[in-house]
Protein: 3-isopropylmalate dehydrogenase
Amino acid sequence: MHLDIAVLEGDGIGPEVVAQSIKCLRSVEETFGHSFTFKNGLIGASAIKKTGNPLPKETLKLCKSTDATLFGALGLPEFDDNPKAKVWPEQGLLKLRKKLELFANIRPVKVFPSLVKQSPLSKTQVQNTDLIIFRELSGGIYYGDKSNDEDKNSATDTCTYTESEISRIAHLAFKSARSRKKKVTLVDKANVLETSRLWRRVVRNISESYPDVVLNCLFIDNAAVQMILNPSQFDVILTDNMFGDILSDQGSVIAGSIGLLPSASVGLEHAMFEPIHGSYPNAAGKNIANPVASILSVAMLLQHFKMNEESDAVVAAVLKSFSKKIVTPDILGSSKYGTNYVGDFIADNIMELDGSFNINDENIGLGKSTII
Ligand SMILES: NC(=O)c1ccc[n+]([C@@H]2O[C@H](COP(=O)([O-])OP(=O)(O)OC[C@H]3O[C@@H](n4cnc5c(N)ncnc54)[C@H](O)[C@@H]3O)[C@@H](O)[C@H]2O)c1
Ligand SMILES: CC(C)[C@H](C(=O)O)[C@@H](O)C(=O)O
Ligand SMILES: [Mg+2]
Structure:
């Protein structure tokens, strides 16, 4: 298969982790006889510095004209700490998600058996965790009307959702649950927010078309507690943009490091693959960032294009790096291995699998039919 892939490295550790993912895609290319082309685009702080714009027109055009986008991370403290900045890096990512209509951000949280001791939580608490968050990505408070009136010292963010925005991601979540443990948990704040009440109404109606899937509703505050106390009770979590952002970072505590968790952001026409972590500016250029979240995002990209064997081969190579303890210091404090070494090891170990590797036990928690 031939794929044109837009590569947006972004800021901080973005370029370092994306470089490892590209090594892995090159290895997939060679092992399985595919052809991938990579075309770089600017986004985030580096784009602002070069063009004044966090999402230059050329970048949007590139992402629209390619088959998929591989995104690293963006953001820098000089923008985070400057509330008066007129433009900031995160605007680039939000605009890109909106323009590509990437309405579903799929974030699997899986505890790998070989890393079960990495979590600060107990082994019995986390060992059977295998959940997947369907985070609505192109609506909600991130995109509502905003204002900031300095004279009045007052600011506003508005949260709006429409039935169709909820419905399209809800169907994806229910379909995913059908291929998993047949359980959807809607996480909201319906005891306070009107938008959450709309979510409940729409999702309950949709659930009638999926009688084989059990729907539960949980308030976000309770969900945050339940996810730590007993994460294995969850299968598919369906939630809005903001709650999904927060809950997925919390999920990384269960998995052992935020440097492990990948994601796929999908819409009807486009798809982007991005780790859930940020640009970790303190680690930039130090060769210590964990590249696995980005590499597993590549596994999701391959799955998106129905290259399931290729995706499994990437996951198998990642698991081999865990079992050989070829990991970055966030996983093993005393590790002497850096981002590049781990990336090389994983890329070098991507190979066609024989029957001895049971991907069903070891997969990244992404069922075969979760991506549209
Ligand atoms: N998708 C994105 O691009 C994205 C996501 C989150 C935050 N951000 C931006 O990133 C910048 C830093 O934000 P932050 O500090 O809140 O979040 P962050 O995810 O960048 O870092 C938080 C902590 O997570 C750990 N971490 C993150 N990535 C890691 C990796 N690959 N390997 C090992 N450890 C890792 C580090 O301990 C780090 O201190 C901000 O500008 C923020 O807006 C961007
Ligand atoms: C950088 C920021 C805009 C982004 C988000 O909130 O969606 C990030 O936290 C993420 O999880 O991808
Ligand atoms: Mg986030």
